[in-house]
Task: inverse folding
């Protein structure tokens, strides 16, 4: 089998800026004019936006990373969701009215969310010419790009992919892979944080954030032809909220509950899948060649890069940078600098916070430079074009 390294970019709203720092460091590890070193790219939630950018710029990996740098380093919340008083007020009133009407049995909840992400739609239309994804595939710089979203109707984790013709659709328990032409709607669906951003209609079903029902993120990369996988996460390894013991007995605010739920969504499935791969690797190591052939199990190298610091603590430093309308809204649900900072870290699409995460990602990757270089060289990228 041809050796292909897969790149998995997980989700997490503004936290995805951390991935850009890691990608920047990797760009420096490679020759200046190197093509995309990741033939298979899988994106989920905000990681889907980074994944699509790399796929579009697959002919020049460094150029794609620079494009991401220029975007994330100058982000402002108003580019992601409406921050003006009228927009925030109207959306909040509609959200409360929608919930109340459902509770009273008057109607169904119709396309309402805490925030209005229409600015993000305009931004993506401007920044991401998705028609170039197929050009990257045709040129041989990309084998496959996948974007995963969660179907609210079917309850399935749906991986939309665009890639080489030999990749076949798949159906597993709770997840399916569907070939398509990746577009802005797939990116919006994958990054629609539950309750916060509205669901996106694709064909006949509404979809939300891809991390919600993603059972086997590594399995999807292997299904697309990857033989080893690099994962760039956005949640600290073995995450725990860093709080004083005296605060644990306090009843959690809505913001704290929402932050805990988001962390669980974005961390748990990946941790479970990593554990599964490790167990399979251990089993394969004990098998004879004949048993491996019969079982069709293979060893899969996986390298995980994740934040060395809790990102919610960094978010606390920049809470005041949010527009006053969003600060007020978050305060109403119990979020402030210290209480509910996890939720804050997902919504803080502000350049100072993003730049801090980029710097952290860059430093974390530099600390593991030899490990990353070895991983890429073993993946058949020792002699990249100059």
Result:
């Amino acid at each position: 089998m041809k050796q292909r390294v897969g790149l998995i970019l997980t989700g997490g709203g503004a936290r995805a800026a951390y991935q850009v720092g890691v990608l920047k460091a990797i760009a420096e590890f490679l020759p200046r004019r190197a093509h995309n070193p990741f033939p298979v790219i899988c994106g989920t939630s905000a990681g889907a936006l980074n994944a699509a950018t790399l796929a579009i710029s697959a002919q020049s990996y460094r150029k794609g990373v620079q494009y991401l740098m220029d975007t994330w380093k100058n982000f402002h919340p108003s580019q992601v969701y409406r921050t003006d008083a009228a927009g925030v007020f109207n959306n909040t009133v509609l959200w409360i009215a929608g919930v109340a009407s459902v509770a009273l049995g008057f109607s169904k909840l119709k396309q309402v969310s805490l925030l209005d992400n229409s600015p993000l739609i305009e931004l993506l239309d401007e920044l991401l010419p998705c028609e170039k994804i197929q050009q990257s595939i045709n040129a041989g710089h990309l084998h496959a790009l996948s974007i995963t979203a969660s179907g609210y109707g079917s309850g399935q984790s749906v991986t939309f992919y665009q890639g080489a013709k030999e990749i076949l659709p798949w159906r597993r328990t709770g997840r399916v892979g569907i070939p398509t032409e990746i577009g802005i709607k797939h990116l919006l669906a994958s990054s629609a944080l539950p309750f916060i951003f509205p669901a996106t209609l694709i064909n006949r079903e509404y979809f939300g954030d891809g991390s919600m029902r993603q059972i086997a993120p590594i399995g999807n990369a292997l299904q697309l032809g990857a033989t080893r996988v690099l994962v760039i996460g956005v949640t600290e390894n073995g995450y725990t909220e860093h709080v004083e013991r005296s605060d644990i007995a306090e009843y959690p605010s809505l913001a704290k509950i929402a932050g805990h739920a988001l962390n669980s969504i974005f961390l748990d499935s990946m941790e479970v899948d990593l554990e599964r791969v490790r167990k399979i690797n251990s089993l394969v190591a004990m098998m004879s060649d004949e048993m491996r052939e019969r079982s069709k199990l293979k060893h899969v190298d996986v390298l995980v890069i994740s934040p060395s610091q809790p990102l919610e603590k960094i978010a606390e430093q920049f809470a005041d940078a949010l527009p006053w309308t969003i600060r007020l809204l978050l305060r109403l649900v119990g979020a402030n600098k210290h209480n509910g900072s996890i939720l804050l870290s997902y919504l803080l699409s502000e350049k100072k916070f993003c730049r801090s995460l980029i710097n952290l990602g860059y430093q974390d990757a530099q600390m593991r430079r030899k490990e990353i270089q070895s991983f890429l060289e073993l993946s058949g990228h020792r002699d990249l074009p100059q």
The radius of gyration is 21 Å.
